[in-house]
């Protein structure tokens, strides 16, 4: 766990609850967890980078990433392994440096290569058997934060990282 330097998330079913809603004008909506947002803020006080790789394209996701300062967003991706390889080369990292949180078979080609993998509790049972860690929370309901807490706790830096966040919040 000490080697984890990059966290990659899927969007639908992880960063959101997996529901894709359209209104009568085909305007898409998604819901994101504020708990996950704060988890991402906590992660920003470490040297672990964050990326989202998703098979769909969503302006709403772009806005959420902008709001949270997520630099690495890859959308409309069919081959997540190719994109991950390019990102690893750019960051000078290896597969063992990656933690990946995904919820379905389109994430599996990456999951089987990374150093640590996880899935939300509401993933399908057969998929849960393929990952290192099954979260207690469901997708879109704080699962990203739970996964971040687990990683940082295993690295032995969670408490000190939260202290950095609190000091920051006291001084903004």
Describe, in plain words, how this protein is organized in 3D.
- α1 packs parallel to α6.
- The longest helix has 14 residues.
- The chain has one domain: 3-Layer(aba) Sandwich (Rossmann fold), CATH 3.40.50.
- By secondary structure, it is an alpha/beta fold.
- The protein is built from 7 helices and 8 strands, in the order βββαβαβαβαβαβαα.
Question: In brief, what are we looking at here?
Answer:
This protein is of the alpha/beta class and 172 residues long. It is 38% helix and 15% strand. It has one domain (6-171): HAD superfamily/HAD-like (Rossmann fold).
Set out the fold topology:
Layout: E1 6-9, E2 21-22, E3 28-29, H1 34-43, E4 49-53, H2 59-68, E5 72-74, H3 80-91, E6 98-101, H4 108-111, E7 116-119, H5 125-128, E8 133-134, H6 143-154, H7 158-171
Number of strands: 8
Query: Number of helical segments?
Result: 7
Q: State the end-to-end CA separation.
A: 32 Å
CA-based shape: globular
**CATH topology assignment:** Rossmann fold
Keywords:
six-stranded parallel beta sheet, Rossmann fold, alpha/beta, 172 residues, two-stranded antiparallel ribbon, globular, 8 strands, 7 helices
């Amino acid at each position: 766990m000490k080697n984890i330097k990059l966290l990659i998330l899927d969007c639908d079913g992880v960063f959101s609850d997996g529901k894709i809603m359209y209104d009568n004008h085909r305007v898409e909506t998604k819901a994101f967890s504020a708990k996950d947002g704060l988890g991402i803020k906590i992660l920003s006080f470490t040297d672990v980078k964050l990326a989202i790789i998703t098979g769909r394209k969503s302006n709403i996701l772009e806005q959420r990433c902008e709001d949270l300062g997520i630099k690495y967003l890859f959308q409309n991706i069919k081959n997540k392994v190719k994109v991950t390889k390019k990102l690893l080369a750019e960051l000078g990292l290896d597969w063992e440096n990656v933690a990946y949180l995904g919820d379905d078979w389109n994430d599996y080609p990456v999951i089987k290569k990374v150093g640590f993998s996880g899935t939300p509790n509401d993933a399908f049972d057969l998929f849960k058997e393929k990952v290192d860690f099954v979260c207690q929370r469901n997708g879109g309901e704080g699962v990203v934060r739970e996964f971040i807490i687990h990683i940082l706790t295993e690295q032995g830096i969670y408490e000190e990282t939260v202290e950095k966040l609190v000091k920051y919040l006291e001084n903004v």
